[in-house]
From TrEMBL:
Residues 25-157 form the HTH marR-type domain. SMART domains: HTH_MARR. SUPFAM superfamilies: Winged helix' DNA-binding domain (SSF46785). This is Homoprotocatechuate degradation operon regulator, HpaR. It comes from the Bacteria. It holds the Pfam family MarR. GO terms for biological process: negative regulation of DNA-templated transcription; response to stress. It comes from Insolitispirillum peregrinum.
Length: 180
C-alpha cells in the first residue's frame, strides 16, 4: 500500500513573545542551510568521483556557462570570496583546467577561461549533475522545483543582497548556486 505524501505546509507556531527568539524550526537561514545540505548530498558523490570540490565546481560551472571573465566577476557569480578563488584558480590551473591571461590594455587584470580539459570536465560533471536534478524533479515535482527557483530569486531581489543571474536559457540561476 502506498501512502500519499501530505505536502501541505505545517501550521505556523504561535508568535514568540516580544523580545524572545523565534522557534529554531522557523529560522529561515537554518531552513535554507538544511535544504542546501540535503540538495548537495546528492551532488557530492559526482564531485568526489571527479576529484573536485564544491567551490571548484561552482567556478568551473560559471566559466562553462558565461565564458571568459575577470576573476572578480567569477568570484561574484560563483559566490566565492576572492582569497578562496585565488587558491581555487591556482589549483585548477595546476590541473590544466583553466587558463589566465592579462586583459588587453590593463595588464593588472587577469581574465580566466576554461581550457579544453576544463570544458570536457565541466561537461562530464554537468551530466552527472543533471541526473541528480532529474531525481530532484521526480521527487519534488518539476513545477514545485521551478516555483522554488522563482521564490528564491524573488526573496534575493526583495532583500536586495543577491544578484539574480540569468542563465543562457533565461532561467534564474542559483549563483550554487542552481547546479552546485
Amino acid at each position: 500500500m502506498t501512502t500519499k505524501r501530505d505536502d501541505s505546509p505545517a501550521p505556523a507556531p504561535a508568535p514568540a513573545p516580544q523580545g524572545a527568539l523565534r522557534a529554531f524550526s522557523r529560522s529561515l537561514p537554518m531552513a535554507l542551510l538544511k535544504a542546501r545540505e540535503d540538495v548537495m548530498a546528492g551532488f557530492r558523490p559526482n564531485l568526489r568521483n571527479h576529484q573536485i570540490t564544491e567551490q571548484q565546481w561552482r567556478a568551473l560551472k560559471a566559466l562553462a556557462s558565461h565564458g571568459e571573465m575577470r576573476a572578480g566577476q567569477l568570484a561574484q557569480i560563483s559566490l566565492i570570496s576572492m582569497p578562496s578563488l585565488t587558491r581555487i584558480l591556482r589549483d585548477l590551473g595546476q590541473r590544466d583546467l583553466i587558463q589566465r591571461r592579462s586583459e588587453p590594455g590593463d595588464q593588472r587584470t587577469a581574465l580566466v577561461s576554461l581550457t579544453p580539459a576544463g570544458q570536457a570536465l565541466a561537461c562530464l560533471v554537468g551530466q552527472g549533475a543533471e541526473c541528480h536534478y532529474d531525481r530532484i524533479a521526480d521527487s519534488f515535482g518539476p513545477e514545485r522545483l521551478e516555483q522554488l527557483h522563482h521564490l528564491l530569486a524573488a526573496l534575493s531581489a526583495c532583500l536586495g543582497c543577491g544578484q539574480a543571474e540569468d542563465d543562457q536559457d533565461g532561467k534564474a540561476t542559483d549563483g550554487i548556486a542552481s547546479q552546485s
